[in-house]
């Protein structure tokens, strides 16, 4: 798995998505659509993921990125978008590390 670094690291995730698509890579986009409490990224934050699990951007400051990447790879394969929800009231919060509080909803879709 690759984490984007300089000079890509400073680029907007949507620009990265376009460059990856232009290079023939299958790409998914994860977007924060709702937050509550101490979610570390605001609504509209993006994470772009390719079919190999490479990613750029952030939807949670590292709390749930691993889970979102895994789901995004599945979305790329299936073509079916999905809504992901993480929070302290959710049993997955402790598994993915969102124990700081709050709730986050992330919409994941394949980019055509």
Automatic annotation (TrEMBL):
Name listed for the protein in its UniProt record: Predicted sulfurylase small subunit, molybdopterin cytosine dinucleotide biosynthesis
Organism superkingdom: Bacteria
Domain XdhC- CoxI per the UniProt entry, residue ranges: 20-87
Lineage: Bacteria, Pseudomonadati, Pseudomonadota, Alphaproteobacteria, Hyphomicrobiales
InterPro entries: MoCofactor_Util/Proc, XdhC_CoxI
